[in-house]
Design brief:
This protein has 255 residues and is an alpha+beta fold. Helices cover 28% and strands 21% of the residues. It is built from 8 helices and 9 strands. The longest helix is centred in the last third of the chain and has 19 residues.
Length: 255
Amino acid sequence: MKGIEFIEATRYGDEQITTDEMKGLDQPELEEEPVGDLIPLPDPEREVIGELDLSEAIELRESQREYTDEVLTLTELSYLLWCTAGVKWAFPGGAFRTVPSAGCCHAIDTYLAINRVEGIKPGLYRYIAMEHALETLPAYPDIGDDMSTVCFDQPCVKQAAVVFIWAADAYRMTWKYGERGYRNIFLDAGHICQNLYLTVQPVGCGCCAIGAFKDQNLNDMLNLDGIDRFVLYMATVGKVDQSEEEESPSADLVA
């Protein structure tokens, strides 16, 4: 399907739309039940997070591709996960989170390729938002090399302390909105990534959004079918040298 065909297929028109919600079909689960071991995350204690005015954070926002070898603490990772997908409160059939989502569907799951986080073995993990915990996925001993390969050998992917990987569970959204829901999924991904850009700064990190990756290779790594559940966006995160301020004319290009 060409891009314009996607736009045409998801347009609203005069015809009546019937969704699975309207048919009375059961709503899908808010989050797939974990099957691996869970690692509880600490509360994102704000006293250990540096303060930064929102206006200043917006002004300073840029893509950063070079990182130091410093590790992230588990509290810092917890803070970033809460800011990008954290649950503020749940209710039957939905949850209010720290990012907006059409109809409170929150059809995007956060996976992590961890290289350097204090107390966490390198490998693949899934963020279980409803429990604020990490699910351990099957081991990838060479996660840095593997992630770099599926991202066309971009240096920032191998350098990163953590790579955030956002994958859609499409039916959570299409149950409510039908084919139009696919548009909402991509919009939601933008909300999430922008929150990450604005919240890495108080923990001394930088990030870079990644849109260039070998889709099916990455789906296979995460055991996603690539049709109903698929990766749609990524971002690298790592500590940056606070003593150097480098100007980059291509800083805002998504790789």
